[in-house]
Amino acid sequence: MEKAGLLLIMATVLMVFGCPQQEEQYKYSVDSLAIEGQEHIYSKNYSIYVRLSEDAFSSGQALVLYQDSARIAEKKLDYTDVPDKKQLIFFWHAEATGNYTLSAVVENENQTAVSNSKQLSVSVKPLGNYGFESPETNYPVENQVYCAQKFSLENEATPGEVQLQLRSLVPTREGKKVIIEIRESAGSQPSEEAPLQSAAIYSSQVIQESEWHTFALKGEKLSPGEYWVVLYRDDVVGNVGWTYSDGSGGICRDLEVSEDWIQIEGEFAFRIQ
C-alpha cells in the first residue's frame, strides 16, 4: 500500500507541474512559413511569406529569417497597426544551386528566440533548358559555324560552370577544343565586344551519344541582364552537335556564308550554375 500511495503522489505532481522534459511553450507564435512557387531557379528572387500571432507585433522584437544557420534578414515588429493577415514578406535571392533550410523565428533584443521556429526546405536548380526527354535533335557546330543561346540573370550572380549537352557526329582530332564564351547581349545577338569569360574542353571528350559536358568558369560576377553562351570549335575536321528542343533564343551563323546570325526554331540545351 505504501508503494502504491507513493506512485499516486508522483503522478499527481506530474499532472500539476508538467513533465520536466516537455518542450518550452513560447509566448509568441510563427504560425506559417511559405515560399513563392514550386521550382526555384539560380539567380532569381522569390517571396517568403511569414504569418505571426497577433501579439508578436510589439516593440523590441524582430522576425528573423535564417538560411541554414546563417542569419540573412530581419524585420522589426514595432508596428502601430498589425499588418494585413498578420503576414510579413521577405525577398530571398537564390544565389547558388543546392538544398537549403529556411527558418523564421521571433527574437528579442538579445537575439533570443521568443517564439517557435518554422522551417522550410528549398531546392535551387540551375538556370537553363534541361527538362526535355529526347536528346536526339541537335545542330552541328563545324568549321566557321558558331551557335549561341541567350539567357537572363535577374540578380547579380557568380556562375562557376556552364554545362551543354553535346554529341560528336563526326570524329574529331586529338588536342583540338570545343570553346564557349559568355558575351553581353546586343539585342537579338551576342555583342562583338571581347567576351566576358571563356572556357574550353577537348573535342575528343565529346562522344557519339548525347551527354552533358562541363565548362568551368573563373567565378567572376555578372550583373543582372541578358547574356549569350557562344559555342565554336578550333578545328576543321569533324563536328560537334549541340542538342536543342522546343523554345526560343537559339541562333547560329556560318561565316563562310554570312556574318548574320540566323534564328533556329528551338532552344539549346544548357545549364548555368
In short:
The protein is mainly beta.
Written overview of the protein:
With 273 residues, the chain is mainly beta. Helix content is 6%, strand content 47%. Strands 9, 10, 12, 15, 17, 20 and 21 form a seven-stranded antiparallel beta sheet that branches. Strand 18 and strand 19 (262-263) form a beta hairpin. The longest helix is centred in the N-terminal third of the chain and has 16 residues, at 2-17. It is elongated. The termini are far apart.
Task: Describe the SSE topology.
Blueprint: H1 2-17, E1 30-35, E2 40-41, E3 45-52, E4 62-67, E5 70-76, E6 87-93, E7 98-107, E8 118-125, E9 127-129, E10 138-141, E11 145-153, E12 161-170, E13 177-184, E14 197-202, E15 211-216, E16 225-233, E17 239-245, E18 250-254, E19 262-263, E20 267-268, E21 270-272
Parallel strand pairs: 2-8
Antiparallel strand pairs: 1-3, 3-6, 4-5, 4-7, 7-8, 9-21, 10-17, 11-16, 11-18, 12-15, 12-17, 12-21, 13-14, 13-16, 17-20, 18-19
